């Protein structure tokens, strides 16, 4: 009988791909076990598009990805993990599949057979959209349809691999309707038929007009697309996971792996994209639960462990009725970041951002601008379908028949623009709406009094009133599945790239407008977590983060030294000014260089600076295009992007910018120790807080990564294994961070109940520097863990050149147990004090 639990004490996230496979992971399980985690937490393992570096573009739910090693490779990894005492959790993707190309047989069947396809209900397709006349829009063309056709870039071919006649466009294949094949081949075998006459543009166009798909320029997708995408990605089509057959198809392998004891649970990607998250989670939990008792001997039976990727808005809590252990930890990532920022720096940072950018120092206006912009460009087609669904209900009732499509479209824009959360969880049945949703309606009515009738009607339908149950469910589903991706694209992928007051507060799940959090509020959040979600994940780095955890920790120091920072940046502008570059873009770049500057990089290291520049150039391109102010993915401004790249490379060239590089390097050296202290504190809090600490691959050492793909670079596990064996406490390598993780995770594995369900209580501090201490106790049945951590030490560290001494702490004391102990003694060995015992 095993003593291992399905509930993790700590997880280690691995991004699997063709260059880091199941076998590569299996070769490192002894290291992962020695580090102290209990479970490997794997990126999606089902068959994804060839060459996928992340696995979220699944094309076949029936098999495990051969590029990762296939089922045999996964079984070998699971066995190696079991031998090392580790479990496995996998990431699953129920919301969407990859489409386009020629590798998704379900999608190809839909293109071939239209609404008569056996898989037409597999995808969320609106065949009744007036824009597509019953066809499926295929927005894959690089130029307008007429230009592509005239250029001869479309061809009718016999595709040997598919065994079908198909339209070919680059790597894309669109199978021809079966009823057209005899005419095309003239009775000959398709593989040997003469297809030449069909290549002439007029003949090919006439043939295309008869098909169940309509080819279109990719830039028309936002307006014309008649199927739900993942966000605004034309290569990812939304699934109707609420359909029983779809659910079974998508989850068959996952359920089998759980039943066989090869996995202990799942992480559910983008739960807010689903039509009815509550019903989905109940179904999945029931299916997993039903398998638990029959898992093989030795497999834990206290599972399954289930967490959801969910962004919580300000004041929003995870729905308590959902049968999950909690979220994947973005909420904790936001909270621990906020408590490390200094509220007193806000005024200076606000003033300088407004001066540099000419934009509001508040984040709310940025979001208010971005939401309708994204809604009416990237999601105009979905918005129209949503408005039509509500109009169908309104038109059936004489009391509301005057509310037409355009009236309801305006009301929907007014509502979605003001949502402070991703979506509602209404399914159109009578219920009380969430406070955040009611607040959004109230705000929309106040701002748009002329649209009040439309807003009142939509609110009534959302609350379960008006029309019939099926009509309400359809309209509400469309609203919810529209609001969630709009929030993600408008906030995370647009406004966060426009608002650069302090970039450490702009990350997935963060409240960018909230610079800091008081210690008392942070402690309260931990006690709430201990009460409501003690097994939720705790993370500070992910495959989706915009800046590495140690970049954010270093940039947080700027909130403590705002005057110094402002003066320094003014000097840098004077040294480097280039009238081709907007000042707000330059300001964001300066922050990025400060935050990501490697600890060992010297200002005259040409090779190192060039390698650093290559990384930052990738971030720069993405940041400009996501902001959509001076360039974009849809319409890149090649000249402005080139000017930014030239300027960036010039800044990082010691032959051209020696004075700037000396100043930059000196400034980083000045604040880096305080940033490292923040990093260690952040690490300790993650490992000691109620919940399950998740460690993103490689981040046991310093993580100065930028947005993907930079945060998915190869990890040097040989170095990490050596440092762990040596128990290195080296500061520069990050060994000190790794050592702290190993110590705390070792304590967690030895007593998981204390860390998971043990009570959390604040510990008082008193004296002159009490405001620089965050102290708490975890206790359970007489067992105790005491943690005291330092906060906001930048001013002291930059003056003293190291951690504060006894003279700095003066009379400050912390009550440990029944005794008051001097802070100077507790922090003499470092910025965190940890004590475990009875």
Distance, first to last CA: 29 Å
Given helix and strand content, the structural type is alpha/beta
Q: Give the overall shape, derived from the CA principal axes.
A: globular
Poorly predicted runs: none
Number of separate strands = 25
Describe this structure in words.
The chain is α/β, with parallel strands linked by helices. 45% of the residues lie in helices and 14% in strands. The chain contains 31 helices and 25 strands. The strands form seven sheets. An eight-stranded parallel β-sheet has the order 16-15-14-5-2-1-18-17. Helix 13 packs across helix 18 (469-498) and helix 23 (606-627) runs antiparallel to helix 24. The longest helix has 31 residues, at 658-688. The radius of gyration is 28 Å and the shape is globular.
Quick take:
The protein is of the alpha/beta class. The protein is built from 31 helices and 25 strands.
Keywords:
single chain, 838 residues, alpha/beta, 8-stranded parallel beta sheet, 31 helices, globular
């Amino acid at each position: 009988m095993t003593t291992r639990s399905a509930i993790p004490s700590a997880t280690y996230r691995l991004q699997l791909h063709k260059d880091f496979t199941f076998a590569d992971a299996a070769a490192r399980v002894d290291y992962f076990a020695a580090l102290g985690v209990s479970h490997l937490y794997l990126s999606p393992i089902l068959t994804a598009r060839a060459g996928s570096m992340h696995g979220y573009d699944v094309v076949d739910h029936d098999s495990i990805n051969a590029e990762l090693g296939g089922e045999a490779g996964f079984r070998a990894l699971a066995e190696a993990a079991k031998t090392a005492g580790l479990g496995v959790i996998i990431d699953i993707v129920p919301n969407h599949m990859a489409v386009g190309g020629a590798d998704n047989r379900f999608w190809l069947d839909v293109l071939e057979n239209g609404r008569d396809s056996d898989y037409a209900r597999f995808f969320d397709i609106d065949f009744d959209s007036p824009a597509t006349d019953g066809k499926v829009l295929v927005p894959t063309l690089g130029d307008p349809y007429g230009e592509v056709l005239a250029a001869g870039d479309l061809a009718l071919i016999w595709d040997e691999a598919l065994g079908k006649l198909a339209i070919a466009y680059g790597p894309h294949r669109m199978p021809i309707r079966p009823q057209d094949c005899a005419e095309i081949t003239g009775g000959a075998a398709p593989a040997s038929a003469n297809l030449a006459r069909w290549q002439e543009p007029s003949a090919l166009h006439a043939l295309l007009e008869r098909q169940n798909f309509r080819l279109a320029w990719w830039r028309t997708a936002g307006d014309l697309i008649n199927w739900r995408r993942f966000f605004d990605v034309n290569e990812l089509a939304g699934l109707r996971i609420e359909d029983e057959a779809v659910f079974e198809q998508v989850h068959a392998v996952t359920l089998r792996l759980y039943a066989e004891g090869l996995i202990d649970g799942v992480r559910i990607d983008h739960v807010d994209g689903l039509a009815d998250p509550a019903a989905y989670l109940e179904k999945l939990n029931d299916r997993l639960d039903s398998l638990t008792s029959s898992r093989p001997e030795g497999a834990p039976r206290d599972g399954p462990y289930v967490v959801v990727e969910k962004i919580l808005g300000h004041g929003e809590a995870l729905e308590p009725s959902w049968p999950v252990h909690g979220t994947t930890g973005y909420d904790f990532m936001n909270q621990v970041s906020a408590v490390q920022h200094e509220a007193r720096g806000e005024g200076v940072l606000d003033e300088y951002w407004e001066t540099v950018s000419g934009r509001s120092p508040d984040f709310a206006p940025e979001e208010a601008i971005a939401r309708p912009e994204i809604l009416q460009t990237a999601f105009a087609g979905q918005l129209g379908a949503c408005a039509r669904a509500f109009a169908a209900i309104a038109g059936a009732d004489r009391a509301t028949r005057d509310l037409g499509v355009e009236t309801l479209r305006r009301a929907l824009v007014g509502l979605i623009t003001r949502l402070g959360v991703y979506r509602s969880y209404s399914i159109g049945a009578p219920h009380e709406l969430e406070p955040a949703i009611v607040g959004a309606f109230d705000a929309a009515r106040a701002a748009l009094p002329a649209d009040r009738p439309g807003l009142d009607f939509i609110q009534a339908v959302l609350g379960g009133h008006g029309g019939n149950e099926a009509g309400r469910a359809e309209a509400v589903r469309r609203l919810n599945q529209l609001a969630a991706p709009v929030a993600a694209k408008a906030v995370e992928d647009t406004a966060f790239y426009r608002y650069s007051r302090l970039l450490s507060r702009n990350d997935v799940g963060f409240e960018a407008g909230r610079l800091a959090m008081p210690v008392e509020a942070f402690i309260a959040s931990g006690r709430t977590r201990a009460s409501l979600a003690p097994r939720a994940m705790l993370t500070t780095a992910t495959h989706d983060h915009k800046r590495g955890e140690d970049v954010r920790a270093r940039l947080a120091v700027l909130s403590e030294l705002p005057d110094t920072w402002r003066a320094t940046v003014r000097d840098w502008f004077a040294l480097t000014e280039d009238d081709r570059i907007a000042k707000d873009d330059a300001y964001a770049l300066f922050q990025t260089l400060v935050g990501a500057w490697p600890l060992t990089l010297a200002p005259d290291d040409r090779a190192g600076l060039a390698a650093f520049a290559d990384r930052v150039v990738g971030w720069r391109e993405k940041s400009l295009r996501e902001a959509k102010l001076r360039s974009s993915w849809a319409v890149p401004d090649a000249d402005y992007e080139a000017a930014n790249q030239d300027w960036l490379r010039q800044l990082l060239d010691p032959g051209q910018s020696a004075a700037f590089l000396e100043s930059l390097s000196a400034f980083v050296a000045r604040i880096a120790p305080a940033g490292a202290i923040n990093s260690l504190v952040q690490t300790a809090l993650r490992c000691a807080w109620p919940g399950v600490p998740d460690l993103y691959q490689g981040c046991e050492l310093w993580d100065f990564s930028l947005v993907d793909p930079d945060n998915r670079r190869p990890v040097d596990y040989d170095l990490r294994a050596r440092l762990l064996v040596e128990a290195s406490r080296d500061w520069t390598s990050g060994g000190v961070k790794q050592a702290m993780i190993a110590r705390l995770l070792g304590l967690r594995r030895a007593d998981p109940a204390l860390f998971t369900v043990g009570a959390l209580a604040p510990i008082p501090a008193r004296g002159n520097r009490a405001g620089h201490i965050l102290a708490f106790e975890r206790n359970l049945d007489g067992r105790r863990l005491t943690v005291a951590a330092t906060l906001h030490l930048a001013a002291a560290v930059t003056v003293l050149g190291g951690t504060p001494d006894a003279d700095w702490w003066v009379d400050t004391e912390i009550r440990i147990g029944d005794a008051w102990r001097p802070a100077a003694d507790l922090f003499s060995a470092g910025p965190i004090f940890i004590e475990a015992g009875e």
